[in-house]
């Protein structure tokens, strides 16, 4: 029996070989008008549209937690609090630091004038401190000799003091004045932030340039030009808009103003350097004039201190100078006033006249020479100003931290997780010590797409969604498409895609798996061919084999929408053209490895090779195509 079967099979094979036509036989299809719908399948997870993971932004000990999992909360409601005692102590310490820094600045400012004032006043005090003489004529002589020098010195010192004070005020005004460094810097920061926010918005998922920046490779030139023009128009409109800070100033004008203010900052720095030098020079002149006034008062014989009444057997002494002459009609000579500086000397005077006795005279002019005052420089003043600003900033931070001791929710919703407890210590900005609140305003699907699949996706496209554990089909729209590669493997980049569920059903849960089918493109009444007729060539080019006058030729075509079984042809074919689906006259050996690749679809095309008798087209994970098996006959 088996022998007979073998003979029959052998005979059938021989008969088929003998009857097989000599000319090739093809399975053909016509290029014809039809509707094509292109879809993309994405897998993702369900999540609340809004979610807030709240963590303390300052370290401390939790004093109380006011919510638990499942609680409903309103926006602004308190979730937890920290023990604020330590934070209040930091505020007190910061206030003390500000007071100390302010006092240091005040002291250094005062030091630049006080030393000179002390030098000039000491000489006058020395003369006033001595006893009045018994002889009016002698008193008149001493005063007349001293007055011109003292008046001249005081007027010079007074002018110097005013010059120092004016230089101090000018230097500080360059920092804190209405046109100073602080004011210009704050204005630059505010305008720059507003301009950046306006221009950055153009590239957001809903921005005018989002479509152009997301154009896939191979987009026709007309479409690219249209999207580019739209983006350029949006940029031009943004540059002339009035959204950057001041409502009366356009973005372009704001950018020009920023350049002007940056130049102003450079000019201010130059002025500050000059002001520091001017203040140093004023302080130096004040010190030099004060020293000169003191030296002149201490060494000149024309400005002696008044001696006391002579007493018998007394001796006169002076610190800083000596006098040896005595008037014949008086007993005792006047020692001169000591100059500013350290030094000592004994002065005695004796004489004979109508009165007898030795007079003694003393002067305190040299007493100021043992004290040295440290005068602050302009650099010291600038350093003090910086220290004060730093202390004030630290105080502001400490005061803000007290407010951060109360943790609130910015959204209304349901408490989903509580990661802290009363008495526990938390660190600032922790990612684990949080209280999570999910909003009640909708659901989204978080997914991702590879670089090859991201091109056709656009914000606003609709999708059907199937959620695990939830009956029925949900509907969604693509709400955002990421620009950054989120894959850890650089060889297969992927990009985040978010879809918003438009009519959420009850029973949706965070983290549930979802399968989405996005309607990427729909073309109606367009020229199409079966997907198995299209072959992917090199450089993202496509070809179709056409049978004309009994000959098979390859034509380059351009494709549009790619459906599950048909592909839109935008150029290269005409309606009625006969395209080759399979060459039925070719034999397929039983051990041919190519027979394993019978799955259809454009994604399965490669190298322009078509498996004889199969639908070797767009397979490989995207868009399903035909799957034609070899069969006998036409």
TrEMBL record:
Cited NCBIfam families = RND_mfp
Q: Does the keyword Transport apply?
A: yes
Report the family membership.
Belongs to the membrane fusion protein (MFP) (TC 8.A.1) family.
Q: What is the first-listed, main subcellular location in coarse terms?
A: other
Q: Where are the transmembrane segments?
A: none
Where, per UniProt, does this protein localize? Cell envelope
Bias (Gly residues) occurs at: 313-324, 340-368, 598-634
> Region Disordered: which residues?
105-127, 288-373, 587-634
Q: State the protein's name.
A: HlyD family efflux transporter periplasmic adaptor subunit
Which residue intervals are annotated with compositional bias (Low complexity) in the record?
Answer: 292-312, 325-339, 587-597
Which UniProt key words apply to this protein?
Answer: Transport
